[in-house]
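Q: Hi! First time doing this. I have a protein sequence and I read that you can turn it into a structure. Is that right? Here it is:
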Amino acid sequence: MASRPRGKRKVTAATSSLGEEIYRRIRRDIVGCVFVPGESCSESQLAELYGVGKAPVRWALAALSRERLVIARPRQGHTVAPISIESLNEVFGVRLILEPAAARQAAGRADIALLNQLQDRITAGIRAGDRRSERRWIEVNNAFHIEITRAAGNERLTQIVAALLEESQRTMHLLTFIIERVKSIGGDHRDLIEALDRGDGAAAERVARRHLENSRRLMMDALLSGATVPRRI
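A: Yes, that's right. Below is the predicted 3D structure, encoded as structure tokens:
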């Protein structure tokens, strides 16, 4: 009798540990649009895909459901959560409050050499349909925004903005399919760097707000036009 509970705890701990690993892998693939918004994903399919049993997959899906990255449907399995206009507006609404103010505070304090390096990598662009290229482009773009926020000198603010950028990653993948239109707002980054370099906080705040509004408009247009991210295998 005594050995049975101990065994049960051991299995539960192992399942939890493996579940955390599978959670991270599935989450990465959802954020990277390997699984596209609205796609069905059953426990059996995921277990086979990741080479594990159903228990850790079930654990991972429960965690992803709490994050609203997947939707559990009784007797139908799970589906990858759609990218909604409501969530897009919520994320950009918060970013528009935080990032322009951070840009003002970062004026005269930001690492201009680093920002120029990041912008050069962003300008280099991406190769359409190349997952690694798309992922690098998004990572560098996020790093640019985080670096400006970090220069404002508030670590908690930096963490919040980083979390918002991560939440936006799935939508960012939509932009990789309208890259020519994305280039139209690329000048915002250069204008922002110039304002930061000359210590003009008001201009930095103004350009940061314009850039975010342009980005939101592009993403909104992509969603409203029915743009989708094709399945990457």
